[in-house]
Amino acid sequence: MNKEELLAKIESLRTEANGALAALDSLVSLQEFKVRFLGKKGLLTDILKSLSLLGPEERPIVGEAANRAKTEIESRLESLRKNLDQKERSRLQSQKQVDVSLPGLKLPRGFRHPLSLVEKEIESIFVNMGFSVFEGPDIESDYYNFEALNFPADHPAREMQDTFYIGPRTMDQGQRTQEKVHGPWSMVHGPLLLRTHTSPVQIRTMEKQKPPIYMICPGAVYRHDDDVTHSPMFHQVEGLMVDRHLTFGDLKGVLTLFCQTIFGKKLKTRFRPSFFPFVEPGAEVDISCVLCAGKGCRVCGGDGWLEILGAGMVHPAVLEQVKIDPKKFTGFAFGMGVERIAMLKYGIDDIRLFYQSDMRFLEQF
Ligand code: PHE
Prior knowledge:
By secondary structure, the protein is an alpha+beta fold.
């Protein structure tokens, strides 16, 4: 091929390229164009390869024409690319636009467990009356769970509560084994156990604080018991009030106000004599049945009353144990089951529902 033919070929390549450029409408077709005209095996490269066939004078002339054509095509290509790129961007942008009229996605929300709800409600009623909230350990010693609460050693009242012991049960064995594990502390405090009630927190509180004491203590307790109304782990809220001149009348007033706040103003209370070693006199508190309002039904067993609390005046022996003078101070204590109150409040007939983590049950509260 000679010089004239090559120059003509360059010229027709330019024309062809310009025509093809005008038809490009996407980034993909632009890439195809680039391969076809400017690529390693492209049309322009073909022409440049044939330069070697020309003589030394002709070569620069044709070479320059070829380069000019290349630069021209490249610069048009570049501005076209920018253009298409911009169009593509704004197309994507418009697709991303938010349709504010579409209904939103509902995010699932967490909720409180019914037992936490009831526990918080109980707490807030007493906090409003001026009580403070305390806590104690789930693993207790025989001393706090029984002895300091005036349960004499080997007294049958200890059997009432079906205790889970941790390690050996008798004081004797208890002292020896626990001495190794826990040090001399256990010498005084006896075997370890899972607390059977929240009453040990009465002792722990009175050891640390002198009267006036207005405390409640929520927490888990453990008893060897398992059926539709009993669970081996359940929850109590303990209460203790120690001050000058407190009487059984104060106990009745505080607990009646509590019961009416949680179950409704129309509710009646009844205080029956009962025995707990750490109170004297002791009482069990009944409320008029929340289902039949006292007429008698399946829930109250027909007599119209439901037992919901244990209570009593703090036994002088307990006050002496924590070095509070029973001649100067009196007090009352009470304990209630959170599950029992929640079951009555929501009409739940199987305690196990609280612990099965079934969302269909739990999300109703
Ligand atoms: N601790 C008792 C129980 O679990 C309840 C109670 C607490 C009774 C305080 C009297 C005073 O049965």
